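Subject: complex prediction, re-run

Hi both,

The earlier run crashed halfway through, so I resubmitted it with identical inputs.
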Amino acid sequence: MIKVEDVHKSFGSEKILKGITTEFDKGKTNLIIGQSGSGKTVLLKCLIGLFKPEKGKIFYGENAIQDMDDEQQRKLREEIGMLFQGGALFDSMTIEENVMFPLRMFTKQKKTDMVARVNEVLKRVNLENANDKYPAEISGGMQKRVSIARAIVNKPKFLFCDEPNSGLDPKTATLIDTLIQEITHEYNITTVVVTHDMNSVMEIGEKVVLLKDGKLVWQGTNQDIFKTDNEDATNFVYSSDLFKKIREVQLKEK
Amino acid sequence: MKYLEDIGSYFLMLKRVFGSFTKTSVLRHLIFKEINDLIIGSLGIVAFISFFVGGVVAIQTALNMTNPIIPDSLIGYATRQSVILEFSPTFISIIMAGKVGSFITSSIGSMRVTEQIDALEVMGINSLNYLVFPKIVALMFYPFVIVISMFLGVMGGWIAGVYGGFTSSAAFIAGVQEDFIPYQLFYAFFKTFVFAFILATVPSWQGFYMKGGALEVGKASTNSFVWTSVLIIAANYIITQLLLSS
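This time it finished cleanly. Structure:
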């Protein structure tokens, strides 16, 4: 479990996060949602330690990341898998080398064992026979799957995903969402996904945290968000034309 | 003020480069890759330029020797001095600032833009050690490039001088051997090491701390060339003043 306590973050005079307090549960896909500029990605980068909050603490289990020394933080990061918005695969490496990278860096396994594990996770993300290709030679959806494979290859305890289905067609986006949820349950890990995609909220939002202007304005499940009277949540959910029309139909039926 | 911040950030980067080290087996692989990209990959252009510039120096010297009492051996002597003292260490380094420096900045800058550096950091890897240290080690082999440049420069001068009909082979070789001061080689290689360090670290700094997208990668590459060249020229002046003036 990850616990966030009163986290504040600014860039210059601009306050991005204004006292976020929440928890991300183990074995669930936790979603951070909100409009562009609401502070979702900044919160994610604070969670993974790329940004240091000015105030507040982030607990991994019992220990606050701010109180850990460099060695403890390094150990913690070995337990973190991250799926970046653009995939962040290493251009100069093949798919196999990309996925094997965390194993090469942090384990003393034999090459044959590493290759076997790489093939296992590539099979898990439905991407076989692409080991020798380079990231530039595969599609965006495949790159995302490779990135997921790299994130889970070293059996992490925490998985973070930044806009995992941005730039993907709806079908591939659904596949990626489903894959993230399946992996979360299968490995029993704490997964945090940043998204502004309502389809993701509907499909995998076991816990949803809504940010607005750097503040947490609502949290609950994907079922709750459609029933809540919270104005900010309602405005966010029904901001798209499709959902507006569904809402109109629902109101008429009532 | 910005310049002071940049200088501070450059030295802080150097501190982090030599901080928490990447796994040795991975580092070894990266060093060999960088030697291939930065050193072996530069030999062709360095050889081409050195050979022809050496030839031009010899021809220019010969054409400017209008006084008949000046011996022909001066052509070899002038070629050797020009190539060893300045052309090979300094001007080849300026050319390398364009070739190798831009490559380093754009490759690290692209990694920054596409979040590959963030990916390394999230994994708990000291990204500066992983990316910059192998480049510094690889460029410590840069003096070998300069040795080749010196040899080909003098050879270019010899071919241009002899086959252009400006001097005899014996006179050119006598000139090359005349008044040879080994300390000047020490001076040339000392500054080559300093330039190699500048070539590895300044473009890395430009790429690592760049912000923005693809356009900014291009701008960072240009800045990298400008600042690496400026620092090489400034360091050249300071080293020459310190080591050669008595």
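Strands of chain A lie at 2-11, 14-24, 29-34, 55-60, 63-64, 80-83, 158-162, 190-195, 207-212, 215-220.

- K.
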